[in-house]
Amino acid sequence: MKLQPRDRKHLLRAALGEVRCDLLVKNARLVNVLTGEIYPANVFVDSGMIAHVEYRNLEADLEKAEEVIDAGGAYLIPGFIDAHVHIESSMMTPRNFAKAVLPKGTTTVITDPHEIANVWGVEGVRYMHDASQDLPMRQLLDIPSCVPAVPGMENAGAAFLAPEILELSGLDRTAGLAEVMDFLGVAQGDQRMLDIIAAAESRGLYLQGHAPGQTGRVLSAYRCGGPSTCHESSSGEEALEKLRSGISVDARDSSILKNVESIWSGVKDVRFFDQLCFCTDDREADEILEHGHVNDVVRNAIACGMDPVAAIKSATFNAAREAHIDNLGAVAPGFAADFLLVDDLRELRPSHVFFAGKLAAKDGKLTAEIPDRSFPLEKRNSVCVRELSEEDFTLRVSLPDGRAAVNLLEYPDPVVPVTVRGRAEAAVRGGRILLEDPDLRYVAVVNRYPGRDTIGLGVVRGFGLRSGALASTVSHDSHNLTIVYGRPENALLAARELIRCGGGMCAVENGEVLYTLELPLAGLMSLLPAEELAVCSQRMKEAERRLGLTALENPLLRIVTLALPVVPDLKMSDLGMVDVLRKELVPLLAEEDARRER
Amino acid sequence: MKLQPRDRKHLLRAALGEVRCDLLVKNARLVNVLTGEIYPANVFVDSGMIAHVEYRNLEADLEKAEEVIDAGGAYLIPGFIDAHVHIESSMMTPRNFAKAVLPKGTTTVITDPHEIANVWGVEGVRYMHDASQDLPMRQLLDIPSCVPAVPGMENAGAAFLAPEILELSGLDRTAGLAEVMDFLGVAQGDQRMLDIIAAAESRGLYLQGHAPGQTGRVLSAYRCGGPSTCHESSSGEEALEKLRSGISVDARDSSILKNVESIWSGVKDVRFFDQLCFCTDDREADEILEHGHVNDVVRNAIACGMDPVAAIKSATFNAAREAHIDNLGAVAPGFAADFLLVDDLRELRPSHVFFAGKLAAKDGKLTAEIPDRSFPLEKRNSVCVRELSEEDFTLRVSLPDGRAAVNLLEYPDPVVPVTVRGRAEAAVRGGRILLEDPDLRYVAVVNRYPGRDTIGLGVVRGFGLRSGALASTVSHDSHNLTIVYGRPENALLAARELIRCGGGMCAVENGEVLYTLELPLAGLMSLLPAEELAVCSQRMKEAERRLGLTALENPLLRIVTLALPVVPDLKMSDLGMVDVLRKELVPLLAEEDARRER
Prior knowledge:
Two copies of one chain form a homodimer. By secondary structure, chain A is α/β, with parallel strands linked by helices. Chain A is built from 16 helices and 29 strands. In chain A, strands 1, 2, 3, 4, 5, 14, 15, 16 and 17 form a nine-stranded mixed beta sheet that branches. Chain A has a nine-stranded mixed beta sheet with strand order 20-19-18-22-21-24-23-25-26, with helices on both faces. In chain A, helix 4 packs parallel to helix 6 (191-202). The model of chain A has no long low-confidence stretch (mean pLDDT 96). Chains A and B meet through helix 1, strand 3, helix 7, helix 8 and helix 12 of A and helix 1, strand 3, helix 7, helix 8 and helix 12 of B.
């Protein structure tokens, strides 16, 4: 992809000095990520692009600009590029997301609208595209590759195959095929994945990868299948093997996972970092406001010992190359005029943020105008569920009163989202499974898409809920209505609340709604700006803590991966309990009782 | 561009270790240009690609290959990539060129068939493509962008505009738009160049540049116009400015110009070399045989002080990225299995050369079979000139007997191909200009293409020819029949000789042909293999030395740029003397005598 100037001929004349350019930023210390040098320079901008960088004669042509800004000796660095992000995970619309991240210096994001694609399909991706069309930042789209994540084990709101990829590649601002998560499918030559990859390659898209924990021959096969990046490295050893294997490492510090420190420890002795980038993946509004965005990730890398200029290069030029964007990520003629002024190369808090040659933010405040626009999809309720009753949340078995052994998913750790397969003894009364152990809870995953009527019921141990019910329509990756509860009446109340408001998260206790975080856009996103959303988010966290979820710093994250059947070992879906590695459904009753039931 | 395996599914199974792969090279010391590390490794190859690199357990899976080669601890490095070369300048066919460069370790060349395009147009480019179709090396084509080099100042055999670019982009193995030489046209927004660039960009081609000596705002404007590389840097300062300006530097050691040493002196303190590559541009058969090809250029850089691993990376991975080839230039899974075994990282003389996973050369000898194939174009005489007479080589003026002042092109230096505008007094006898000064010679440029009948006549000083006539159809870039001579009868003999044999170079003295280097293919290339051509080339050089051209180490190079109207100040074309910078024709007679003539 090559970014184009608004007016090529005017740009050329401005470069030659024949006409005034739009903007001159003088008296800067240029951080040239192309060479690694830092030197005094004046930067001339026109038609959205860098027209000329003058470093020999700093008094030359100072009058040849419509506007002159004196950098006062500040460092001038390229705007940050997020190599991989789901905007939906910020729970903000693309426009509100822009308002939040621009003051932090993020001028480009490579987005994967995977979440909304699972809800609204092609229409959802189009919405993310249209809603970011005229922003003072670049939201480039990678096309979701794995919708749903695990076909056959869950029902999402859409299913993407090669035709959907081809259709969406026609949008402006598509850069790649988004994180190809089905790494086994790719490595084993699954025809669906090969077709999707071939479709993307036929349109010149780069292939963004996703291979958590993969190593050795499986990793080699995955790379041979096409994907050339991965943002899932969690250990230094894993990251080093990926760099050696020709897989770009997008080092991630998300709200869920902080990987940068351990990655750096493993790769710091490497000589070439052409393939190292940074990403936020999933970062919530309050964390963006408090800590920052890509600048925070880069800051973390520098704090670990990475050289600041190399780290800035990773977050700019390297990321642009990874996404095959020719003229982005450096301050040089013909490159997009996205750049920042910063006083401190380790803190990276921009005093000025320029996008396409225009001031977009200053001293942490947005200065560019982002007019409100509304879209039909923002008002459409995506939670499509029939009238429910308590019966829908009751675990029934055809067994006489007594006891039964049930399979369940068990969290060994109160924080880590990994589960194992467990079992428990439960009482059977009137054909119902009754849970007596206070560490056991029911879980329901209610399909919320038209034409489906599936509800998966199961049992979970160690989730952390001590009372009431917790419900969420943010529930990766199918985003079905997921509820953890002790009593069906609480589950029903929480479900009805989210169906009413079009989705979000809801905490119920003793027949009363404690709090609802309303996310009416696709059941994933709020229409509120970051500052207001952060307040609501805090209140939701407080409500969750009241229900017992005190172990996690961010309790919102507990329920959202309970129905994610790509993270081992056992997860829930609207079809029931899923054995992730075997890709098969697991019955509620343990084998001996299942035989009794028959 | 992404290189594809012969059989994707087999490659994946081989990577997984489920089937035997085609080849295992074990016991190697891998030079991983992605990380800059060197470590012991076994490399598994299948379907033309690297399937897996094993470095943890060097005893694993040694039986899982159809063929096993023991590297004996040698370094294993990626095959070399020539970032910019005119195969025509080797005077060999694409197939014979491959035979010569493969044993030196060059497995990929980014070729610019600019020379044959000026002779045979689209058909010539198609020939270069078709003749390299099934070779055990990659000859990737950049589409010539400037045919002819200077429209209006010369007539070549073809003219390329946007439609020709679009047509040729449909060929397999097209990578980019070749060296965009009209740097002023680009910088000034000339519509012809903008259209050609837009056509190339619409097909996803990268834009190879050419901006000799350009600096400051003109260089910025050129970069804003699109081209992102340059192989014309001759000084270190020039190279450094280009790197800073986002222009990849293809450091060149050709038969004509050795730039690597001075470039390195200027950029050695830079921290990042992502944008540094190497190229040969124009290198003749004897030099390839004696000194090498890309390996020789890399060796020169290392001898200047560049780190060997960084230099190898420049000549492999960097060059692939410059040409936008995703999976080439590194030894990692999913990359093309082009690699070398070398015992010495500074000498870089490969003991084994593998192309697409097959042994192509060993111990300096070609082992792959390159069957002879013939093409109609190889037998077609491209020298299309009407019957000539001595009169055609006579400089006539409408002046009475006496003296006249003539404009001329003057070589201030016996070696450097740069000329200045000069003047001289000459005798006029019977309406003819007679040159008495032995340092003056006549020069004729005879258009050799159908439908044209133009002959440009002029005078040259300091060319170096002391007796006889020297003629060549290799005459950049239009490759018209160019002759330097003292007496018309010698010029006529030389012209007739080259018309007869379909082009080449010819030395005549005292009415006798001393030697003819026959280049029947487009008047540019021989059909002989390198070893035989080198002998003929030596004999031609000897003949030229006998005529007085003793100052240059390689006298063949003197005449070939005499009609190159992009190198200042004055050059010849079939239309006469050309003022290069003003882009205007210069009359033979100096102004006062021109007025007398009227």
